[in-house]
Amino acid sequence: MNCKDIEQDILDFIDGELATDKADKIKKHIGTCANCKAFYDETVALFGAFNKEEQQVPSESLREGFYKLLEEEKQLLNPKVVQFNKQEKAFPWKRAFQVAASIIFLFMGYFLGSHKTGKDANKQIIALQKETNELKEGMVLAMIENQSVSKRIQAVNYTEGFEKPDVKILEALIERMQYDGNMNVRLAAAEALSEFPESIMVKDAFIEALTTQKSPSLQIAIIQFLVKIQEKRAIAPMKQLLEHSDTPDFVKEQVNDGILQII
Amino acid sequence: MPNHNKIELKKLTDEELMLDVSQGNLDAMAHIFERYNKRLYNFYFQMVRDKAICEDLTQTVFYKVMRYRESYKGGQFVSWIFRIARNEFSDYYQSSKKTSKNTDIELVTSKSEDSLIEKNDNETHLHEVLNTLNKDERELIVLNRFQGLKYDKIAEIVGSSEGAVKVKVHRIIKKLKTVYFKTI
User: Fold this and answer.
1) How many domains does chain A have?
2) A68 min Cα distance to partner chain B (Å)
3) Of B62, B119, B124, which to mutate for an interface test with A (greatest number of A Cβ within 10 Å)?
């Protein structure tokens, strides 16, 4: 080991970085070589000066400053995360369902309401119609006995609006047809009664009226009705009309035509 | 690697802590600060004997570590943080040279009252000797002799090879000895 090698390894030797056998060799060399001993001593002295350097301690403001920065950095980190989440939640399903549900409830409410009110309205209308019919019937029955001919005719005409008139109405009308003093009222009643061909009561009344009524125009109206409903029972009283001397010729013609049509 | 909880953090190596930080666990950053703030501060103090400047520079290093935490991809943490510290010092050195052209400063010695250091004679002498070095020489000596960093780590910091660093350090120490014992 020469002096050049010593110079190479002296730092590691001082730092204790060398393997023991190499370190021993250097130790030995330093003991014999004055130059290398001086080189070693100077280096150790210099390092000694380095080691005397005191460690400096930074002021507390460094630590305070750092923790402030750290907090700021954490603040930066957190809003970022929140914003990212918001962006990710592109479609707000929960909100969409809420809106959809509210719309459905709105329509359900509307339909339920309209259905219910419709039902109620129908009921009310039916009740009102019933009430009106009752009123009309009452009015007809009251008016039909009136002194005035025109009022009686008006009452008879009111019955046209009835789909299924009460028995009382039919009785009143039949009575008008048979016994009213005014021929026009009797005729109007006959016309009104001809609207209800299904009623047996009406048919019987017409057959009876054929024998009792003397007015030709009423007789013609009665014959037309009985022919129209093909009432076989009317044939016998119609034949009687033909034999009757009071019966005008044009009524007889009507009777002949009618008998042919019924058969 | 999952983030570590607070109890575990103390036991971790510098590298494990920094990886935690890089993955967003900023609490681990506090441990890094506690482990390294005095070291970095003293590194700067050997370069510039001004407390205020050293605190500023140290603060900046930790700020940058925090800010650019994601650029840490493992590897020797001490080399990584000192590389940042060294770059920071270079920036400071360049700007201070521009602002004080007239003063022939190799390294700035602050004149401000509050940052003046109580000196004994030996310390003054060593500092005078150190002042004869240029910035890069002084840096190597500070890293090697004051920070106790081995040649391989210094090589990583300054971007050189271990052999080249070793040769340079030897040369600088030889130079320092000459100045030190000539003027003592």
Assistant:
1) 2
2) 10
3) B62
